[in-house]
Amino acid sequence: xxIRVEPAQLPSxxxxxxxxxxxxxxxxxxxxxEIIMPRTMARLCGVHVNPSLMRCYGVREVLCGVGxxxxxxxxxxxxxxxxGDVLDVGTLLTQADAHGAAAGRPQSALLNVATIxxxxxxxxxxxxxxxxxxxxxxxxxxxxxxxPDSMRGGARGLRGTPMGAxxxxxxxxxxxxxxxLKTGNMSTGSMNSGGLGTAGSTTNAGATTPxxxxxxIE
Length: 218
Known about the structure:
The protein is mainly alpha-helical. It is 54% helix and 4% strand.
């Protein structure tokens, strides 16, 4: 049996949608920082690049961020981010500044970019566009916790339990019975004061007889 499942019902696709939105906001923040202060960003990364080139990288990030946050199918924008990550890695490897390299800035930036690249790749693979479900094959599943042969006869051990033969009335203990049904709890005077009389009421104040209880349900 094959069932069509929407992307929101798949755990991996649901995580990919949330991660894609997070990457969109990250791209916007990084892109704006590269556009507004390109020299500072280049110094933090330990590279020597032209400010105009850094601003171009910022525009790329902003476009990817807007696409991830507004598009119903963010997968192309995820692959665009992945291409940008490859470009960033190349820039860090070829344009490292001598002073920045001594401080370890290009190495730290390269590690950060590699982490983001792995996240972009995983998200792009797991992402499912909205409105496009996936067909899941359940033909090999029975719905039972184990095979029928091993479960056969498992309910036989339930015979003889308190819920079996005599029903709920026989299982009711003296403590669990209502006050009006307990033995010897009512006298003739209390019964007569309510205008009621039963065959099981007491004959005098000193001696009482058990009241007739409802018979057990067989």
